[in-house]
Structures are given as C-alpha cells and as structure tokens.
Amino acid sequence: MLDRRIFREIDSVTILLMVLISTVGIIFVYSAIYFQASQFVWRQIIWLMVSLLALLVAIMIDYKFLISISIPLYILMNIILLGLLFFGKLVANTRSWIVVGPFQAQPSEVTKIAVILVLARIFADYREDRLSFKGFVISSLVVGLPVTLTALQPDLGTALTYLPILFGVYILAGMQKKYILIIIIAVLVTGFIGWNYALKDYQKKRIETLLTPNQDPRGAGYQLRQSKIAIGSGGLTGKGYHKGTQSQLRFLPARHTDFIMAVIAEELGFLGLLAVFIIYFLLIYRFFSTVWVSADRAGVYLAFMVTMMIACQFLINVMMLVGLFPITGIPVPFLSYGGSSLMANFLAAGLVINVRMRRFRYV
Amino acid sequence: MARIYEDLTAVIRRSKITLYVLVGLIILVLAFYWKIQVLDHQKYWKMAEANRLRELPLTAPRGLILDRQKVILADNAPSFKVSLVREAVIDYEKTMDNLALLLHLNREELKKRINRYRFIPAYEPIIIMDNLKLEDVSLIEARKDEFPEIKLEVEPRRYYPFGSTGAHLLGYLQEVSVDEIRTQPEKRWRAGEMVGKSGLEKQYNDILTGREGKILEMVDSLGRPRAEISRTEPQPGRNLELSIDFDLQRRAEELLQGREGAIVVMDPRTGECLVWVSSPSYDPNRFISRFSAEEWLALVNDPGKPLENRVIRGLYSPGSTFKIVMALAALNESIINENSTFYCSGSVELYKKVFNCWFQPGHGNLNLPEAIRNSCNVYFYQLGRRLAIDTIASYARLMGLGQKTGIDLPGEKEGLVPSTDWKKRFLRQEWYPGETISVAIGQGPLLVTPLQLACLTSVVANRGIKIRPGLVKGQGKAADREKINLPETVIEKVIEGMWRSVNSQGTGQGAYQPGFEVCGKTGSTQLISRETAERLVQRGGEVKKPHSWFTGFAPRHNPEIVVTVLVEFGGMGGQTAAPIAGQMFKAYREKYVRQTNLQGN
User: Fold this and answer.
1) Testing the interface with A: which of B14, B20, B217, B220 to mutate, by most A Cβ within 10 A?
2) Which of A118, A217, B159, B191 makes a 20 to 30 Å CA pair with B219?
3) Which residues of A touch B89 (CB under 8 A)?
C-alpha cells in the first residue's frame, strides 16, 4: 500500500501553510497573554509538534481504509461524548473536556473527523443528481447526534462548527428547495424549544447581545465592544507587536483563543489582518484544488467537507469579532490556542492531503 | 481498487460555486474590517484611549487664612477619602455589600449617594467617605487589589486650628451641591468638591481655591493602575491675610463666653476689622466632612442660632445708641444748639400719650452733651417731636443705616430705617407722629446690625468720613472713603456728649479706661413696652432683660479704634456691654498703644 511515489506526492504546500498559520498563532498567543505564564506557548508548541506527527502518521493510511472503519469510530466517539455528559469534569461550566493529569482534550473536536468519514462513506456511492430525501435525513442525523451531545455539554460554539460539514454535504449532493424549507422549520422549532428549555441564560444573553451591542458595556455587550475597539483602534498599520493596549491591558476577552484575530488586528492593523486573510485564502484555495483533482467521489466529499469546516470556522470567527455573528466561542483553526482543536484541524487537513496524495487512479 | 470512469463534474461545479460564495463573503468581511479599522479608526482609537487612560484629579490645597500677625486661622491637614469608580464595578450589588461592610456605612445611604451622582460620567470617581480613621485606611489599603473599583486618596482637608474662634468670620466649607454641579455654565466644580459655603471661605472662594492638578495613568480592564503617564501638580490657592487680630479676637470671645451677642472692633482710619465675634459659636471642624448632615442640621435647628453671623445678620433695635443720629440731625437742622436745654421730669406727655424716661426721678434741665451723657429719653423725645420722621431717616441713611455696609462677607442684612414712604409701602398705613417719638430713642421699627453701628461710630470718630469696613489686611482704599455732608463742628458737639458718657460718670462709664479717652454711647433695646412689662411682673411672670448695646471709639482725638458690643438680654447698656467694651479698649491699648509709646520714648 505504501508506495514511494505517494511520498513524493505529500502536499508540502498545505503543510507549510498550516505550520505558518500555527506559528503566527503561537507568536500572538505569546503577545496576548504575556502577563500570564508562558507555559501556554510551550504547550501550544508541543501540541503543534504532536499534531504534525499525527498528521504524518494519518496520511500513511489510505483514506479509503479510514472510511471503511468510519462507522465504529463514529459510534465510539459518540459514546465518549455521551459518557462526558454524565462523568465529565466540569471545566468553565461545561463538560466538554477529558482531563488526564495535566492534559486536557476535547473529544467533540476529534469527533468531527469521524463525522466527516462517515458522511464520505455514505456519499461515496451516491449517484443521484440531487439530494434524495433519504440522503438528507441520514446525513442530518449523522451530524445531528454529536451536535446535540456537544450542545448539551453545553458547548454551543463547537456544536456550531459541525454545521458547515453538513452544509458541505447538502451542497455537494445537490440541495433542493424543499429541504431548505424543512431546515428553516426545523431551525425555528429547535430554536423555540432551545430558547425556552435548553439554552442557558448566558447563551441567550450572547444572542441578545448581537442585537443590541452597546446596551450594557460591562455586561453581555462588553466582549463585542472591546473586540471592536481593539480592531478599530489598530488602524491600518497597527500599534505594534505587543503594544496593543486593548489586549495588553486585558480589555479584550479570550485573547489567546476566540479573540486572537482581534489581537492581530490591533497590533498589526488592517495590513496584518489582510496578510492573515491571504494565507488563509491560499490554504483554502489549496484545499479546493484538491477537491477538483480527487480520484473519486469519496475523496471529493472528504476534501470538500474539511474545507467547509475550516473555511466556515474561520469566517464565522472573523465575523463574530465585529458583530456580524453572535459571540459563540468559536476559535480560529490553527491560529487560536487550544491543543484539541489544533490536532483535530491537522487531522482533518490530513484527510485532504491524503486525498491529494492518492489522486492518481492507478494507485 | 481504482474505479472506472466516474462522473464528478456536477460535484466539482458545486464546489466551485461554493468557493466563489466564500470568496465573496471574505471580501465582504474584509470590507467591513476596512470600515472599522481604517474609516472609523479615529472613533475606536479614542475609545481605546478612554479605556486605558484614567485621569485622577489632585485636589489643590486651599489657601490659608491668617490673622494680621500671620497666625494661621484656617489650615490644611492631610486626610484620606474613599471614592468609587463606577466604570470598574462589575457586580453593583456585591460592591455595595462590600463597601458597606468595609467602611461601616449604611448600605441604603450609600446607594442614595451614588444615585445622586449618577449623571456624572462613569469614569469620574464618586467620593463615598472622607476623613477616614487610620485603621480604616490600613484596612482598605491592605485589600485594595480585591476592590479595584474603589480608590483611596489623600486630600488636603480644611482644618481650623482654633475651632470656634472666628468661626462666623471664616465660614465653612461644604460639598458642592448636585444642583450647583448640574447648573454650572462651564465645568468648574467636580462632584464632591468642597467649596466655601459661608463667611470668608465663600467670599474669597475663588482666591482660596487653587488649581487642581491631575494624574494621567494607564489602567487595565479591572481598573488597576499599571503606569503613570503624566502628572500635573496642583497649584495651591492664595493665602488670605486678614485684618483680624488673633489676640484681641480671643479676648473678645472670652468676654462674650456664655452669652449671645456680638463684638466688632474696627480701625476707623482704614475700616479694617480687628475683632469679629458672634456668640454662640460653633466648631467648623465638626462638619467639614461631606458626611455630617446630622451635626449640621442640629446646628441649624439650635434655638441659639449658633450658625448665624450676628455681626451682619443680627437685626436689633439700636436703642439709645440711635441718639447719636438724633443729636446730629437736630444740630445740623438747627433745631437746637449745644446750649439748648429741655427739662426732664421722668416722663413727658406727647400726642396724648405719656412717654417715660429710663430714669424715673427725672434728669431735670439738661443740654445736649448732658443729655447724651445721661442718655436722657425725654430730651430726645423733644427732638423727635421737632424732627420729621423722614428727616430722621435721611440722617440715619447718611450715617449708613438701612443699607449694607459693603463688608466683604456674604449674607449681610440691610436693617431698616422707617419713613413715611416705607410705612405706606409695606404696611399701607400713614405714619403717626407718636411713632417718631419711639424712633427718637432708637425703638420702633428701626433695625440695625452691630456692624452698621460700628460703621456709624467710625463716621463720628472720623469726623464725617465714611469708610467701607473690610476684613483683609491692607485693603482700605481711598475710593472707599467718603466725606459725608455733615460739618465737623456738629460732630464734635456729639463727641463731647459721648466723651462725657464714658469719662464723666455717664451711662457709659463702664467703658472708662484711664489715659485712653474713650467716647461712646450705651443703648438698651426694650423688647416689650414698659406697660406690658409691668403687667407681666404683677402677674408673677418673668421679664426678659433688654438687649445691651455699647458703641464707642478711642482716643477722642485721632481715634484708632471703634468698639461695638451687643449682648442679647444683657440688661441696661451701661451694665453689660459697656464694661465688655472697656475690656476691649484696654486690651487694644495694652497691645498697641503702649508699644508705640515705648517706641516713641
């Protein structure tokens, strides 16, 4: 199965771009939490190394094999998520972490990979021109289960990051108008039930915040306000590395995770932000090109779902920082501090590289 | 393993459309960032600066108030105050709980106070306690990291080293009121600032108030200071050097201890006041705090009216001291000369009514100087019968009654000089000639302040030069001197009477000082008519004594000092007020005259 030619086909461009973004992330994690212990930086560096290693191991295994074992993997991950709800340790009001000694991991991040693999398996042999009702329901349920389990933790942000994967499937398989109607109804119904019975008060507050951000500067609107001030005050060229007052004086919340782009925008200005956007765009474009050269339908689905997951997560984050999307705790892939997320994104990107490596039909 | 041809064109097309949509979205988001970062940069830059910078006012010490020999009458002492910065409050209710506990404050009162200032910007501190005890200071200092929303600062606090000495003159400070802050045309006062609310502190507030300094510091999101960016030191206010003589002031206060009344000592040459006593007094130190409403209210409601500055706000009938005005008027109107005599039998019937002299056996025949010496009422009734009330009023006004003296203190009262016009206007009645008889001995509706009487006396002492009284050393200006339309010869004749009153066993003999020719006039103001008093005594009731007056100057030639004493319910002027005035003349002479003599020899 392992061919020397495959190694030659390892997509070093994608890997380089990912490492580049991660490095920028580490540099700004260092700036953002300078006043705190620098162990965050070391931890992230170690996570980067581990993620790279995991990526290299993962691409050795043919994605078709991974797809073949996807269902047991998916079931296993959901059992872990379910178990977390009952036995998970409460960290920052959520039960989303497995804590083993000094290490913490977020299974809901890795579960996304399993979801992607299962969906690729389902649609690998899909020949219809349009998305069938059966396909619509099955794909929705496959994503819906871990989303519900994650939302119950409650980790609404991570749960939301599953949705681009599902939308990716819808789009690729050929969306039909009637399904959009069903989705709207489903969203309204779950929205109603969720708002009244499931959502925690702080989550409701955040959604309300999007509508009226300037109401209460110290309350719910505080984060968005401070984020906009940080970004806006950065100007064209920024205040300089480590000189952002909003981040250094801790006006900015979650500086090293969800709001790291605001730190970059404040310290490097619009030009720095633009540079990050360009690197991201190059990465996303590279992912797309893999979609286009994929050898088979499974590969197309795999690469596209991963692309959607990463691209949308990035977009939602940058929209969130300026109030175009509710503040829901979504980190920027590769850039934000967080080992599980980094690992999951590297593994996901590994699937794309995997597809690209094995794009030649005769392999 | 490899599949035979698979048609992927549809899915690839869909993925491409997705890419275009994503690119479009990215461009839109970038445009939005461009707007925030580049177009609205100024706005957000200012907001970021407002976030990180905090301006702290540095209270400027008030100027000191000194006496003429530079004894400090109003000083500053460092004091600790605690303020709340609402901007840094995260949980309001919790902060309230903590503060109430930490500072032993009433939670509701605290909330009320903060509420009162809710209109000021959230970054401006609201003072919630001042004049802290040292143990509280160390307690707060030790826990300041827990409470970034509260600030502990040192401020120079007004301190009056001699407590109640000169309290009415100096005045006191109070927190500037919410209404004053709200209605101030330009930003002058800060919330919680202490401003002069009475006395010299109010009159010279602008001079005494220095220029506030400020610290610009960088703070983090919890309001904890990180670095000082700049500091402007406050400029202390200018000192005020008074004409008051601390030693004489203390002596006067001793003399009036336990009584209600007033003493003014003035230099007739300059108008400078050397003594200013209003009794009872109060200790302004006790309510210089922003939080002493109760103590202050107790003083306001005290029946003895300790807050009232009797020297300029106490209105009294001048009693027999008004005979000075009557004598001047009659002489100048040529109704009498110094040799004209009237007969006093102890009473006289005028307008079908009997008017009594204070000396029931009667004074017999007497001329003007003797009438002044004995303060004979009948003599002056006769003058009152011969002078129209409006003529009397015009002389009273000429001598400065019925109008403000122009002293540099707020709240001075005008007093009242009755006239036909006045009565018509305010009582809608005609003037009865019988009323003029009462006015002739300083009774009736006539009202003066002790300071007005002192000024009147200095006009006499100056032989017709009216001067504006003042409290600041070296302020007597030529513009404040005015020659009134009264010949010196006329005044000299009245002075003769005043001299006899003190030096020739007259009513004012209590003020006699050997070798220091004191000239003066006593007065006692009947609070009720004699008939009423007699009726009261018959029924076994108690009659309150009349107010006791003395006003005079010394020496007779080239006078240096005017002393006016009022003792409420002090009895006859000669009994109480004159001896007190005598002590003041003595004290002055011992301090000033002997010194110059020694130098002269």
Assistant:
1) B14
2) B191
3) 218
Mutate to test the interface with B, among A169, A249, A289 (most CBs of B within 10 A): A249
- Identify residue B132 by its one-letter amino acid code: L
What pLDDT, on a 0 to 100 scale, did the predictor assign at position A363?
A: 46
Residues of B with CB under 8 A from a CB of A: 1-3, 6, 8, 10-12, 14-19, 22-23, 25-26, 29-30, 32-34, 36-38, 40-41, 43-45, 47-49, 51-52, 89-90, 218-222, 226
Q: What is the pLDDT of residues A221-256, one digit of tens each?
A: 788 888 999 999 999 999 999 888 888 888 888 888
Q: Which residues of A touch B86 (CB under 8 A)?
A: none
Contact flag B2-A361 (C-beta cutoff 8 Å): yes
Kindly determine whether residue B41 and residue A232, on different chains, have CB atoms separated by under 8 Å: yes
| Euclidean distance between CA atoms B498 and B518, whole angstroms | 8
Look up tokens 């006769």; give the residue: B382
Task: Name the closest residue on chain A to residue B9, using Cα atoms.
Answer: A292
> A98 exposed, middle or buried (CB, 10 Å; 0-12, 13-18, 19+)?
middle
Tokens 């007065």: give the residue: B523
Contact predicate B383/B336, CB 8 Å: yes
Q: Residue range B456-475: average pLDDT?
A: 91
* Long-range contacts formed by A11-15: CB under 8 A, 24+ apart: A11/A286, A11/A290, A11/A352, A11/A353, A11/A356, A11/A357, A13/A286, A14/A283, A14/A286, A14/A287, A14/A290, A14/A349, A14/A352, A14/A353, A14/A356, A15/A52, A15/A55, A15/A353
**CA distances (Å), B516 to each of B263, B356, B555, B591, in order?**
20, 34, 6, 13
Q: How far is CA A28 from the centre of its chain?
A: 19
B244: alpha, beta or left, given left = phi > 0 and alpha = psi -120 to 50? Answer: beta
Contact (CB<8Å) A296/B6: yes
Residues of B in contact with A251 (CB under 8 A): 48, 51-52, 220-221
What radius of gyration, in Å, describes the C-alpha atoms of chain A? 20
Residue A295 contacts B where some CB pair is shorter than 8 Å = yes
B65-66 and B240-241 strand pairing = parallel
* Structural domains in chain B plus CATH codes: 53-241 (3.90.1310.10), 246-278+310-600 (3.40.710.10)
Q: Where are the domains of chain A?
A: 4-357
**CA–CA gap between residue B250 and residue B252 (Å, rounded):** 5
Cβ B481 vs Cβ B269: under 8 Å: no
pLDDT digits (tens, 9 = 90+) for A189-226: 887 887 777 677 776 776 666 555 444 445 557 888 88
Distance of CA B393 to the CA centre of its chain: 29
Residue count of chain A, please give it. Answer: 363
